[in-house]
Amino acid sequence: MTRHPIYSLEFFSGIPESILTSIASDSQLRTAVRNQQVITKGSLGDELFFLIKGRLQVIDVTEDGRELCIYIINEGEYFGELAVIDGGSRSTSVVSIGDAELMVMSRHTALQLIYSHPILAERLMKKLAYLVRLSSQNRAMLSIQNPYQRICTVLTTLIRTLPGNLKIIELPPQQSLAGMTNCSRETVSRAIGQLLNAGIAEKDRKTLIVREPERLQHIVQGKITTE
Amino acid sequence: MTRHPIYSLEFFSGIPESILTSIASDSQLRTAVRNQQVITKGSLGDELFFLIKGRLQVIDVTEDGRELCIYIINEGEYFGELAVIDGGSRSTSVVSIGDAELMVMSRHTALQLIYSHPILAERLMKKLAYLVRLSSQNRAMLSIQNPYQRICTVLTTLIRTLPGNLKIIELPPQQSLAGMTNCSRETVSRAIGQLLNAGIAEKDRKTLIVREPERLQHIVQGKITTE
């Protein structure tokens, strides 16, 4: 028998197994396919989501109808917490990049859990603080005039360090990177090409292996002038 | 003897007076003058601030050196919570618009309070959720092409309803409105002039009295075409 995914979610680490078992039976497991909308901006929502498998993009629709990908949700992360906390409508849409598996918890269960376990309240607060910081960085990034520098800034935020100090970036779709940085898909493609040509990164399918993170950082800081 | 300002702060409503008395003696009262920087972006900070008197502006400095006013802090509100929650550096600067009085609490005291009173954790979470929503609205606002529509959108978010259903806007400095909406001070001045000419609002010193909130809403929604 496969173990319920709730036991491997970092958000719940430290919570007694008996409590997790009872939450697990209260929660639903769902799947999503490529491009499926998991959350629709503006709708009323009263569920907290945990991403068990796959990758999702958080999308905002601008007033003039463009879709901006704001950030990527990775395996093990949760989302949908704003509406759970304040009972308001969904502030952004969430779309599945490929196939995905989700665990879904009712607002009632989620709030009860959070307010009875200070460690969960603390984790949630830290995540919200992170989101506020992210949007503030995002504002600063979008104010950079040079699109190549904007793209490198976003790529830097996506770096993950693997054991052995290998730094990789799981590339979001180019269309998403274009949306995040407010430039065209062609510019994104050219910027990545330049990083490869300069030997700053290597590409392995959809992953960038960052060979020279410091040079990437220099581009972000505007120390290296580019196109 | 004047009562300590802590007893009138909404954030602490419901917290036993004996606890407030002990926090009050642990906290400092400070003053700030016009244009004084209360928090500096990028600095390390371990204090939570409560604005007792005055008005402050939250300012972000963009990569190319422009100052963007993001929002206004009004009497009775608190700020500086991000660094208190996650121990990181200050994400924005805070500058006093005029003379101001502040109550300042150490990070240690603030965290102890928050984690031992779920109602405070809940209030803080709701505020953080509000900040995330605000930045998301901000992104949507900045994507509007027409500057007049952007200015009206920001003005709408500043409306306060007084007893008797009177709707007013305490105008931030024009330079701040210009920063918030990414347009020139002249454009802000012209936009406000148009609202007065059209009878949508009246001006009383630094306060706009909104006579026709629905027409203002129509401009925000792009239903009325303007310059």
TrEMBL record, chains A, B:
The keyword Cytoplasm does not apply. GO terms for molecular function: DNA binding; DNA-binding transcription factor activity. Gene3D superfamilies: Jelly Rolls, Winged helix-like DNA-binding domain superfamily/Winged helix DNA-binding domain. Keywords: DNA-binding, Transcription, Transcription regulation. Residues 11-131 form the Cyclic nucleotide-binding domain. SUPFAM superfamilies: cAMP-binding domain-like, Winged helix' DNA-binding domain. Residues 145-214 form the HTH crp-type domain. GO terms for cellular component: cytosol. InterPro entries: cNMP-bd_dom, cNMP-bd_dom_sf, Env_Response_Regulators, HTH_CRP, RmlC-like_jellyroll, WH-like_DNA-bd_sf, WH_DNA-bd_sf. This is CRP/FNR family cyclic AMP-dependent transcriptional regulator. The lineage of its organism: Bacteria, Pseudomonadati, Pseudomonadota, Betaproteobacteria, Neisseriales.
